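Figure 2 data, in text form.
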Amino acid sequence: MALEHAILVSLLERPGSGYELARRFDRSIGYFWTATHQQIYRVLKRMEADGWIDAQDVPQDGRPDKKVHSVAAPGRAALAAWMAEPVEPESVRHTLAVKIRGAAYGDPAALIAETERHRTAHADRLARYLAGERRDFPEGGEPTESEELQHVVLRGGIAYERMTLEWLDDVLATLRRLARARTASDRTQS
């Protein structure tokens, strides 16, 4: 997926300035597609030059005008064409998993702190996802079609983080058990 497609989806959900779009990436879109603020501004400029988006200068009191972007007809057509293309299932590249497999040839105890660090990062991400869900999708609301689709993507992220935490707990239990067994074995051989 190109950054252009993520930007088009975001601008269709709500037109905005480059700054507002970058904040949306920080708050929600960035959970599954990351981009720096510089990348977003660079791509916005190119998309405007290609006619995919329109920009309107909006005056602000006491501040420079801001440029509010919205999707133009060629941008909608490009997004529709991209959405019609098949997408291959993504392969997972997981460096920590390779290190865990390699622990049999090194020191399993050496990976415990790194695995705990990963667990903390995933627990923090899950907490952010759940806070976002409470904030953006309150119980009893009447969601729009767009909101329903945003929520189903967020629920996928929540499920992924919960699964990852469960797996990391299993990894930690295994590493600790193997480290204890190796320590006991080293003592009996001494």
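Caption note: The helical segments are 3-13, 18-27, 37-49, 73-84, 95-102, 112-136, 145-189.
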